[in-house]
Amino acid sequence: MSDVTNEPLADLFRHNLWANLLLLDSCEALTDAQLDATVHGTYGAIRTTLTHLAGSEESYLARLTGERTADAIQAEQVLELADLRTHLRRSGEALIEVARRVDTIGSIRVAWGGNVWQVPPGIILTQAINHATEHRTQINTIITQQGIEPPDLDGWAYVVAYRSVDGVVGW
Questions:
Q1: In Å, what is the CA distance from 43 to each residue of 12, 83, 134, 165?
Q2: Domain interval for residue 52
Q3: Could you give the CA distance from residue 36 to residue 142 in angstroms, rounded to a whole number?
Q4: Residue 130 belongs to a domain
Q5: E-only strand ranges, 90-139
Q6: Going by fewer Cβ within 10 Å, which terminus of the chain is more open, N or C?
Q7: For residue 162, what pLDDT is reported?
């Protein structure tokens, strides 16, 4: 095993965790009707999309580690926001650690759409980031369509959120 860590890749997953939790913070101010709202062209209602996002992260993590948590989100399950926070934090922190040591993980067997592939772990990590970004954007669209300002979740907002007092970013 290599001692080298992939901190730039881990940074992507630190941002991912931050963005997921900030979006969840924003959603906690919404009513049940707002959480159950949807917009054509999105995955579904905010609450359903958040649960799907959290469950997918657990699934990606299971593929990368070969381990699935006993309380992993099941298909068709919809969780309350407090429960989602627990799932998103746990999977987000674990994905950061996996990203740091991705070079130690061999290829992963993936069955999808009637095909089976052996893919490098970076493909699973790529899908995790792309999937989360897509669904956060869909949720922000639904929030915006309800006349509410969504949280700014981009990389620059992340940097601003973690800048030091003197303006120099320190991680």
A1: 23, 20, 10, 39
A2: 7-161
A3: 10
A4: yes
A5: 108-112, 115-119
A6: N
A7: 80
> What is the sign of the dihedral through the CA atoms of 38, 12, 86 and 106?
positive
**Using the 8-state DSSP alphabet, how is residue 112 labeled?**
E
Residue 167 lies in a domain: no
Q: What is the pLDDT of residue 3?
A: 55
Q: Is residue 137 part of a domain?
A: yes
Gap between the Cα atoms of 42 and 5, Å rounded: 36
> What are residue 45's phi and psi, to 5 degrees?
-60, 155
What are the backbone angles phi and psi of residue 119, rounded to the nearest 5°?
-125, 150
Residue 109, strand partner residues? 118
pLDDT along the chain (171 residues), means of 10: 74 96 97 97 97 97 94 93 96 96 93 92 97 98 98 93 61 50
In the chain, the N- to C-terminal Cα span, in Å, equals 25
| Owner of token pair 């991680």 | 171
Domain count of the chain? Answer: 1
The answer, as to whether pTM is greater than 0.85, is: yes
168 inside domain: no
